[in-house]
Amino acid sequence: MRGEDRTTDQLFSYVNVEDRIASDHPLRQIRQLVNDALKALDADFTALYAQDTGRPSIAPERLLRAMLLQAIYSIRSERQLMERLEFDLLFRWFVGLGPDEPTWDASTFSKNRDRLLDGDIAAKFLNAVLSLRRVKKLLSREHFSVDGTLIEAWASTKSFRPKDTDSGGGPDSGGGGRNAPHDFHGEKRSNQTHASSTDPDARLYRKGRGKPAQLCYMGHVLMENRQGLAVATQLTHATGRAEREAALEMIRKRKVKRGATLGADKGYNAWTFKRDLEQAGVRPHVALKSETGRCGLPIKTPEGYEVSQRIRKRIEEIFGWTKTTGGYAKTKFRGKRRVALGFDIAIAAYNLVRLPKLLAGAAA
């Protein structure tokens, strides 16, 4: 029988959001992992807001859940995220908003998000997820890989001007909020003499020969080799030594046990880096620049070197997801601390998207 096209005229409607979310929806398992990790951060949230008085802020738990949704669903801006929260019951359920609760203003959300910078909450959240008992069982403690990637800054190369130039205008200012045309051909520019007036923390960096120089940051990830999950992150200025320095810092941060292996590409093949790894008790499995030594004899590789070199390439999957789905090929933030916050959230979102299937496979 054909149904009637009739508009309901009921004055009241009672909606149970829990019933509207499918029992097998992927976000259900992700939300449970997120909530368990947030419980472990309760003391950090209390300390972060201890000195505040006045009106209650947006709950930090809701802030983090909303930021994770932004990465998982490739939402470009906070304004679009707030618009989605206005009508999407799935988003409201995940964040913790009831059907009748108003959403936040985009600027209010951004100001409250910046509060999380003071407590380094994003990095602590990533560690809290990895420290969950059922997640910790999945991770390798003996074999790791490391790599770095460029993250384009939210700044134009036209903003890269001499440091003694007034950032508010000058001869290159086009007026009316526009940049005047400028020919940079033949002009020598470097990070020592120039800085971006838009984002002073960004650095001009060229990835390789034939590649254009661009204002960017460098994001680094330490990956465990068993499941290919990111276990530590670091965001630095883009320099030629940043990858090796960040790798050592992440190893210390993760407290990698002595005897573990670390796979890396040719960019890490420096004797000082290998020496520092060995002093830290980590065995370097760094890609060789040449298969033969100075005398033409083949270089003897350590045991497990081929396996490390094969598995380390999986770290590109992390960067690929972070830049495409996570929307972090070009950051939306300015300033190193804000860019690091967004990078940590994007990496945490990658882990959370993969964990349900990994946990199901471990339980089978």
Automatic annotation (TrEMBL):
Molecular functions per Gene Ontology: DNA binding; transposase activity
Transposase IS4-like domain sequence ranges: 209-352
Listed Basic and acidic residues bias regions: 180-190
Skewed-composition ranges (Gly residues): 167-178
Record InterPro entries: Transpos_IS5, Transposase_11, Transposase_InsH_N
Domain Transposase InsH N-terminal: 16-115
Region spans: Disordered: 160-206
Domain of life (superkingdom): Bacteria
Keyword DNA damage set for record: no
Keywords from the named record: DNA recombination, DNA-binding, Transposition
GO terms (BP aspect): DNA transposition
Its job: Involved in the transposition of the insertion sequence IS5.
Family: Belongs to the transposase 11 family.
Protein name (Swiss-Prot/TrEMBL): Transposase, IS4
Organism: Hyphomonas oceanitis SCH89
Lineage of origin: Bacteria, Pseudomonadati, Pseudomonadota, Alphaproteobacteria, Hyphomonadales
